[in-house]
Write a structure and sequence with these properties.
Elements lengths: L1 E3 L10 E2 L18 E6 L19 E3 L2 E2 L14 E7 L3 E11 L12 E7 L29 E7 L13 H6 L8 E9 L2 E5 L19 E11 L17 E9 L13 E2 L5 E5 L3 H5 L6 H34 L5 H10 L1
Parallel strand pairs: 1-12, 3-6, 3-15
Antiparallel strand pairs: 2-11, 4-6, 5-14, 6-7, 7-12, 8-9, 8-13, 9-10, 10-11, 13-14, 13-15
């Protein structure tokens, strides 16, 4: 099964969601921080729901452990998640690949697989507790939780149709809120699980005749593709801003309806127990590129310079001779010349 997602992260965020259950203290985890490499590969990847154009991109694989209890014995049974990333100097692209039996219940997002990416925005934002601000919903504000901001992209399959673009549609763009009324793609900023604010509500427009392109419990692989700008016009510190050549922190989460049971907000697997390092690399060609001297250009320049010098010298010489001749020459009025001719 292949799903297609494209996200415009500059959307405004305003609608609150139901909070996660309280996470408590961060659990201990044997694994360290992982690494995701985003190479400069312009024009190689298209967000079209097909993974063939990602074949040459190296993947980083991570075990999916329960977020609240990262015990290896309780890891996601379908295997690891493969994370790939590239950029073209303007946008960054992600592919998440997870094996698993096909699970789909139309209109019930919590009974379908779901995936999310989280990026650190504030300097004090922690991986655990989605930013780690200690405030509760009644007291968390941009002032009291300043520095704990995280940027989250979350996509649910529930009402989405494979192979279609979601996010940034013209109708919602015209409304100025970036809402995705045709799918369940949300752009969230948060200070903790209880203080999350998102743009995007329950989707509309599902067509009954549309086939979800899969058979229940059939073995396969889920593909999720994301695209977002490296830099956005965010004025409220709600979107992560990426810089080529500088690492950024990110995380990957995956929800799956085990045994057909609906998952809860906190019932997800995480690809790590801490931030993953997203390394957005500059072009390798640019690092080693040294323009070769253009000998034909140099010769032409030298010849043109020589002609310019010669022209200047000739101008100076002619100007000098003209001024000298003008001071010694005798001037004869035209009337005198005509009179002389008449006398002869």
């Amino acid at each position: 099964m292949r799903l297609l997602v494209i996200l415009f992260a500059a959307a405004a965020l305003a609608v609150a969601t139901t909070a996660h259950e309280h996470h408590g203290e961060a659990p201990t985890c044997a694994g360290g921080s992982g690494h995701v490499l985003a190479e400069f590969r312009p024009g190689e990847v298209t967000v079209d729901g097909h993974s063939d154009d990602w074949d040459s991109v190296e993947a980083s694989e991570f075990a999916l452990l329960p977020a609240l209890d990262p015990d290896e014995d309780k890891a996601y049974p379908g295997g690891k998640v493969a994370v790939k990333a590239v950029h073209d100097g303007v946008n960054v692209f992600f592919l998440l690949q997870v094996d698993g039996a096909y699970a789909y219940t139309k209109g019930e997002s919590n009974k379908c697989p779901s995936v999310a990416l989280m990026f650190q925005v504030g300097e004090k934002a922690t991986f655990y507790n989605m930013g780690g601000c200690k405030d509760v919903p009644s007291s968390c504000t941009s002032k009291s939780c300043r520095g704990h901001e995280v940027d989250i992209m979350h996509f649910s399959i529930g009402n989405a149709i494979p192979g279609r673009l979601y996010g940034g549609n013209h109708i919602d763009n015209a409304a100025g809120n970036g809402n995705d009324r045709f799918g369940h793609l949300v752009d969230v900023y948060a200070w903790n699980p209880h203080c999350r604010y998102l743009d995007g509500v329950g989707p509309k427009g599902f067509v009954d005749d549309d086939n979800p392109y899969g058979k229940q419990d059939e073995k396969g692989t889920y593909y999720f593709e994301f695209s977002r700008p490296l830099r956005t016009r965010d004025q409220f510190q709600q979107d992560a801003q990426f810089t080529i050549g500088h690492p950024s922190n990110m995380a990957v989460a995956f929800w799956y309806p085990t045994d057909g049971k609906a998952w809860s907000n906190s019932d997800h697997y995480s690809a790590s127990c801490n931030w993953l390092v997203l390394d957005i690399q500059p072009s390798s060609e640019a690092a080693y590129y040294r323009p070769a001297p253009n000998r034909s250009w140099d010769a032409a320049t030298a010849f043109a310079l020589l002609l310019s010098v010669v022209a200047i010298c000739i101008s100076i010489f002619l100007g000098y001779r003209f001024s000298r001749n003008r001071s010694t020459a005798q001037f004869t009025p035209l009337e005198q010349i005509q009179f002389a001719e008449e006398r002869h």
